[in-house]
Design a protein that fits this description.
7-stranded mixed beta sheet, single chain, two-stranded antiparallel ribbon, 358 residues
Length: 358
Amino acid sequence: MTTLPNTPWRRLLGLMAVAALFAALLVPAPAARAVDHSKGHPGFCENSTGVTVVIDFQELGGTTIVRCYPSGTRGTGLDALKGAGFQIEGAQRWGESFICRIENRPSAVEEIPIEDNEGYREACIDTPPAAAYWSYWHAGNNCGWQYSQWGVKNRDFIPGGFEGWSFSLNATADSNPTPRIAPVRPGTEGGECNAPEEPAPITNDPDERQPGSQSAGAGQGPDGTDGGSSGGNGGNGGGGNGTGAGGQESENGNASQGAEEANDADDTEDGNGEEGTDGEDGALPPPVPRPSADPSTPPDPAANVTFTGGEEAADVNDVIREQSGASAAAPWVAAGALVLLAGAAWLTARRRRRARES
């Protein structure tokens, strides 16, 4: 096999190979859409098969998005969120047990105007602060929004119902904003509230799924009785087991996705709502009991804010570049610089060779 002599040509080829490698690494990856349109479909689910997912950015800015996860099988809140096509990111400490970003909001480069915490940016490493986090809600069709008593992996979505995520900024336990879309499927206005009672998770494991299952479209509890409201009492909600999402402050002042409702202060006194340690046993920080609205009274669909199905959602990479001030041409400029460097090295080597020959 013929080999190249150890000449400037060989060194030039080596430099060009290195330049090509760096250029390939610097070329931006194919853009990922903010909404995966291969999953779910825009708008409300049309019937009791599947679950409608509402993402309300509230004070973060941006149009509310409504999409359907048309699944006829049992699934968790996490299944609904991802199955509807939404891009999510969990806190590094908890993984997808605690949702930190939805549709890249809040992004790592945007400043969140938290009171008394100027310039805060969400790194999604640990639990976000209680003053700025994604609060988790759910509702049966024609029912009011309920602040989730359990985490996104702990609870099943309600067939034919709604899953809601609403960004809570500088709010309290009594003022966390509900999603501004009424949990009422078009054409079912005025119908009865249809939501099963939710069985509580058994342990503090944030990845544990709740026992039992729910049949599509059935307003029945796990024992076959009328489920009534969804998790509407302290007995079903339990207290302080740290399994869920929510909007309360734990002892360390962080958000606790999945706070449960308590009907009176006795729940905390007898240990049901007791605050515990911050995840020492691998569980999420225990939530603080909070009041909840009457689940049998849904909001009026006429008051819905403007929403889309995410059809025109901005590309995540474009948003990050715009917020950071970076240019899409930067990788190509860097690659070009490497090629010029290789060319300069070749010219220098050629001149030296000619100088030696002369």
